[in-house]
Write a structure and sequence with these properties.
elongated; about 80% helix; mainly alpha
Length: about 130
């Protein structure tokens, strides 16, 4: 809306409440999209590490979670899927399962690293004791 005051045109810089919520919703959707992209990248990295380490269980589980995530993400791209419980519960359950799988895999990696370091320290102690 333009106003003319003494020959100078001014643009009204007033937003309605609807426009404020629209801007909030757009920011929220950008944040959710970024969150989902981070989730997908983390799952792909976990899948790659599982395959490289030879873990068939984690490789298969990561691939299954990723396939379910892609299917639900594709469905919500074309439909109001997350607004109802038939989509929202399953989508966020898959996200939660993926986060839990990532946490368990990180814990197992740390434990195996600590175990290998402790075995190396014991081998050094035995080597020093016999020398």
């Amino acid at each position: 809306m333009y106003f003319n005051l003494n020959g100078t045109a001014f643009v009204a810089a007033r937003f309605s409440a609807t426009q404020d919520w629209m801007l909030f919703g757009q920011g929220l959707s950008i944040g959710c999209t970024a969150l989902n992209m981070v989730f997908a990248i983390r799952m792909l990295n976990a899948q790659r590490r599982a395959v490289q380490s030879g873990s068939q269980f984690w490789g298969g589980l990561n691939l299954w979670i990723l396939a379910c995530w892609v299917a639900t993400f594709t469905n919500l791209s074309f439909d109001v899927y997350l607004e109802g419980p038939q989509g929202g519960i399953w989508f966020w359950s898959i996200i939660g399962l993926g986060i839990a799988a990532l946490r368990i895999q990180a814990h197992e990696t740390r434990q195996s690293l600590l175990w290998s370091q402790s075995k190396g320290a014991e081998a050094l102690k035995i080597g020093y004791a016999s020398a």
